Amino acid sequence: MDTAPRAAQTKNQFGTFAGVYVPSILTILGAIMFMRANFVTGEAGIIGALSILLLAKAVSVLSVISVSAIATNMTVRGGGAYFLISRSLGPEFGGSIGLAYFLAQALSIPFYILGFTEAMAFALPQYSAWSADIAYAAAALLLVVAWVGASWAIRVQYVVMGALALSVAAIFITGGMHWSEATFMHNLAANYTQHVVPTPEGQEPHNFWSIFAIYFPAVTGFLAGVNMSGDLKDPSRSIPKGSLLAVLTGFIVYLLIILVNGGAFSREQLINQPFEIMGQMAPFGMGVLIALGVVAATLSSALGSYLGAPRILQAVARDRLLPFLNPFAGGSKKGDEPLPALALTAVITFGVLYWSYNIAQGDSFNIVASVITMFFLYTYGTLNLAAFTEAFGRNPSFRPRFKQFHWSTALVGFLACGAIAFIIDPPAAVVAVLVIGALYWYLHHRELRAAFGDARRGFIYTNVRNQLLRLRSMPADPKNWRPTILVFTGNPSTRDFLVRYANWLESSRGIVMIVNIIVGSDERSGFHHLRATKQIEAYLEHNNLPAFPIAVATDDLSIGMEMVLQTASIGPIRPNLVMLGWPSERTNLQAYTRNLKSATAKGMSLLMIRGKSLPPQMGQRSIDVWWRGRQNGSLMLLLAHMLQHSIGWTSARIRILRVVPREVEKEPALTDLRNIMEEARVEAEPVVIVTEASFREVLQQHSMQATTVFLGFATPEPEESQAWRDMYEELLEGMPTTLMVQALDEEDKALLG
Asked: What is the band of 226 on the pLDDT scale with cuts at 50, 70, 90?
């Protein structure tokens, strides 16, 4: 994140009215009010139009509530919706939605300008041939105003708001003078007549959702004020107050337009002449005011987007999420105006206008509107998701001063945005999801280390806590056994094979804890513990291994092992398998075996690995399991099966080997092994060896070429530990990596049941 000081720059200090309410209301009362509101009433009827208005405003209000909650919980800076999302859900969500929202705002500029030229073509048909030139001129004029700075743009918007107020008054006066109860009742119900909805079978009449899609951009304007967050004197106070007031004002105006014009004009006039009829029927020359209003509404909305879009891009660039955006992080010395980002916004604007007038086949307005609607819906949805994550995760730091918020409203808003997006335009919704998903994937795989926190950790923490508490009350069942492996590695970099085998045996179905016991003086134990923990974390991150670090500093190795055996757990999840390396000649064998017995007494099976190297990357791997009865055998077979299903081992062949002294015992032994494999549902090759030779000779003859060998053992008494080690040293001399297993009796009997 870019934290470089900008001492030479001065910030704008707008209040609630100038910074939030004015840009929001001018965007809300935009092209839809003049060009589509009457059309919606004519098609859907007064009742249908009111239903559409209430549903659209409900989504808007839920989103405003979520925005207000987030904004009153933090110090808000520039970037509007991007800032709020990124500081709640993290850089991946923030960056992907931020860029999508920037594109929505940037595309809104040519959208509003296209609406302006469409209105001019209706009002002044003699100039319709000049529509493209008028559009380019309007875009250039608005660019100049935005380039001069937000303070000048706000002053211009005061003039625009005055013109818009006069125009709205003229609309109400016109409708009021022609209102009749008969017309109102005739227009009450829906009458979908326009055959303009494309389907595989051809054109079909409009329906509720197609009309909703046309109308929804009317409620997307409240974020215009949020976009000005970096230019506000007190964003946390101004954003909730100004946004809610703008949404309420917009609701009242649109409600009155439906009720007044629905009773003033015939259905045919509402559908076929939604804009012209108001000017034609206006008394006292007020048609001029209505024409002035549509110019003011469309151009002011475009200006609002000209101000908002560059500020979003500037904020994303300043967080250094995407290197190619770094040139757009700059701002002017006076007002910190995002001039580089504004230049890119202008390029997009003129590019879309050129496409509309030179390449598109007359449907550009609707295409752009559809894509914009999708991006807005997903922005609103993600804002609601951010608020829900903060609140439902019970993050103690989430203490919004806006008290009219509950996590349920955010959840409803999130679900509503997603559902509506796919209902009104599935293809456009899919395009929006793909774009946002691709951006999220890119940012996620950059493994960002943002300087700001997010709510995901708190949300996950709450879920983990709840699940751990549930797990605590559930009895353990061997049928649901999962490996929770406690690996005593020391410095993992020097015993990499231990960690790798633990990771293979866990096979993405269990948990691995890496333990390093540091023997040293008590005075520096804290330093040793911290350094060892960081060492394990660095090793795990470098090798992309999923495990948890445990470091203990003590003055005695055996005591340190006992401490870990007693305390290692993740809530109710206790280790059930202890993994160690084979004891060397320098090992205190009596203390070592006492630790082994302590582990089994605490309900942990044992796994010792004799070997120092990993299997070769290439070539066929094989796993030999030496079966000497049920004791230890079930756990060995299960571990061999899990090893076979880990990365790099999927083509490995498992053999179960058993020795019998007489030929007559071979077939019964084979049948027994097949039954065990059937019972265990493990694919393996049963091998019965008939011989009276020593087990050492048989082992070395049949498993010398194996990749890994499983062998059962029993922990000796401490005083017998040296003889026990010498016996296994002789038995395993020259053998490949051998995993020696001691299972708990009860667990071993139940594992493969």
From this structure: confident
